[in-house]
Design brief:
Blueprint: E1 4-9, H1 13-24, E2 29-33, H2 39-44, H3 46-63, H4 79-103, E3 107-110, E4 112-117, E5 120-126, H5 127-138, E6 145-146, E7 150-151, E8 153-154, E9 159-164, E10 172-177, E11 185-198, E12 202-204, E13 217-219, H6 220-223, E14 232-236, H7 240-251, E15 255-259, H8 272-284, E16 287-289, E17 293-300, E18 303-310, E19 313-319, E20 321-324, E21 328-330, H9 337-340, E22 344-345, E23 348-349, E24 362-364, H10 375-389, E25 403-405, E26 411-415, H11 418-424, E27 429-434, H12 439-444, E28 450-455, E29 461-467, H13 471-484, H14 488-493, H15 502-512
Parallel strand pairs: 1-2, 1-11, 2-3, 11-24, 13-20, 14-15, 14-20, 15-16
Antiparallel strand pairs: 4-5, 5-11, 6-11, 7-11, 8-9, 9-10, 12-21, 17-18, 18-19, 22-23, 25-26, 26-29, 27-28, 28-29
């Protein structure tokens, strides 16, 4: 073959799933990834944090053993081993993705990729690395083209500078370790492709205040590499990432303060849920500061002090570590959007529901397009892109996207919130069923929370929110109902096993019709 049918830039949950679906449809695929397969979610996000959530859950449960009639010895926390287990989980799953790539005969090219010219993806590297790439792809019948090579020169620090151009940035320096590369030339290999899928993910966002570069001030990516627990932690940002990490560290006995500029935590979800969650988090020992701005960070006597300003004026929050969890931003480095004429919006690539950009045969998916930055959304968008390239009529449907937040208790949502329905002027009904009236929840010792269902006047399910045990799994029933346009009556009449947590969903569905069975 002269060129690949699909060239994918990025091997995260969007990129690698796109590759798998494309080969299922008979397309030839090359995927470029500079780090490990799986992207942020698998290596520095969803999966490692969930491994930590499980350790925190067990630690919390052991502390409650006497409630269940169990006597245990003294608890001992080995945080290094907790992190070691987390790494093993990640390694296992990364290995699984690599096996899927091999089984699908997908050409995975290791190196930093770029998109600067229609019909080609590029790989940057030193001459030895690039020769390996050319040999690898040549064996598959695709002839690559060498780019312009640039000599490297070491500076006084023992590092080397390479002048590179990246989309969205001014031409500047990129410094890299060069212990084995000193004196080697660098360049690019151009890979011919018929269709391009941009799946470059996102990067942690930082707020522009003094002290962000101090030692001990870390992002959500960086904190997952630490092997020692701090005695105290200030979390800047009361969104999903911030609250999950705060819950984990608080469970392990760390003194945690969460600083959020907005009036509420989790400001993007159904407002009733954070109102119910906040007092529970405070009761667990978290310090929650809303309507509070960060003015700066400084170091005093080997400690960090986060200067904040809230309703009661300014104060300093002292801690050993500061976690910056102020969201993520699309990563468009390596994409010459301006030169190519790729349309962007608020720093993200602009696409339609077919995942098409404004350029023919160029698609974009996942965090690079902004919107809902969730791994499962990226994967679904990757499937849509692959199917469009193969000639199918797939489109994204964002009406029923589930979202899970692994605090304690868990939170999950799908579809519309009350705020959204009010803004649309949609008439709706609300039904709530508490876990305190669910037999399985009481048996588990997890009575906190509720299932909430929103339906239109005909009973069609429009949205749902769950706070409580296994909310992340329970939300799938409501997601399916929203996706397929089911009524609350159809959900309620579906036989649910007893005693189980999903019965709370069934009861909430009965409640839409005014006939919840186990609620006075």
């Amino acid at each position: 073959m002269e060129k690949f049918d699909v060239g994918i830039l990025g091997g995260g949950p969007g990129g690698y799933v796109c590759a798998l679906r494309a080969v299922q449809l008979g397309l030839s695929v090359v995927l470029i990834e500079g780090e490990r397969l799986g992207g942020t979610c698998l290596n520095r996000g969803c999966i490692p944090t969930k491994a930590l959530v499980k350790s925190a859950e067990l630690w919390r449960e052991i502390g409650r053993a006497e409630e269940f009639g169990l006597a245990v010895g003294e608890r001992r926390l080995d945080f290094a081993r907790v992190m070691e287990r987390k790494d093993k989980v990640v390694d296992t799953l990364v290995g699984g993705v690599e096996q899927l790539m091999k089984a699908g005969k997908i050409q995975v090219v290791r190196g930093w990729g770029a998109f600067r010219e229609p019909g080609f993806l590029e790989v940057e590297g030193d001459t030895d690395q690039l020769e390996k790439v050319r040999a690898q792809l040549g064996a598959s019948g695709v002839q690559t083209e060498p780019g312009i090579f640039v000599e490297k020169a070491g500076d006084k620090s023992g590092r080397a500078d390479t002048r590179v151009e990246r989309a969205g940035e001014e031409t500047g320096k990129r410094t890299e370790p060069v212990a084995e590369e000193m004196g080697k030339a660098r360049g690019r290999v151009r890979i011919p492709v018929r269709n391009v899928v941009l799946a470059t993910g996102s990067l942690p966002a930082r707020i522009p205040v003094a002290g962000m570069d101090l030692p001990g001030v870390v992002t959500s990516d960086e904190i997952l590499s630490e092997t020692e627990l701090p005695d105290s932690l200030v979390v800047i940002g009361g969104g999903v990432i911030g609250l999950e990490m705060a819950s984990i560290y608080q469970a392990f006995g760390v003194r945690v303060s969460v600083v959020e500029m907005l009036p509420s935590l989790l400001a993007t979800i159904d407002e009733e849920i954070p109102k119910r969650l906040t007092p529970l988090l405070k009761k667990s020992g978290l310090e929650i500061l809303t309507k509070t701005a960060v003015k700066g960070i400084r170091r005093e006597n080997d400690r960090l002090v986060v200067q904040v300003e809230g309703a009661k004026g300014e104060r300093g929050l002292e801690a050993e570590r500061v976690l910056v969890a102020t969201g993520r931003k699309p990563n468009l480095r390596g994409i010459d959007a301006e030169g190519l004429g790729l349309e962007t919006e608020r720093g993200a690539l602009r696409v339609n529901r077919k995942m098409e950009t404004n350029l023919p045969h160029v698609y974009a998916i996942g965090d690079a397009v902004g919107g809902i930055m969730l791994a499962h959304v990226a994967s679904t968008e990757g499937i849509v892109a692959a199917e469009r390239i193969a000639g199918l009529s797939s489109e994204m449907d964002y009406r029923a996207i589930p979202s899970a937040i692994f605090t304690y208790p868990e939170i999950a949502t799908a579809g519309a919130s009350e705020q959204e329905l009010k803004e649309r002027g949609t008439a709706y009904k609300v039904s709530k069923f508490p876990f305190s009236a669910n037999g399985k929840a009481l048996a588990l010792g997890e009575p906190l929370g509720l299932v909430k269902i929103l339906a239109d006047e005909q009973g069609v399910v429009l949205g749902g929110a769950i706070m409580g045990p296994q909310a992340s799994s329970l939300i799938q029933e409501l997601t399916l109902a929203i996706q397929e346009g089911l009524t609350a009556d159809q959900v309620a009449r579906t036989v649910h096993a007893h005693p189980t947590l999903p019965e709370a969903v069934m009861e909430a569905a009965h409640g839409v019709l005014g006939k919840a069975l186990h609620l006075a």
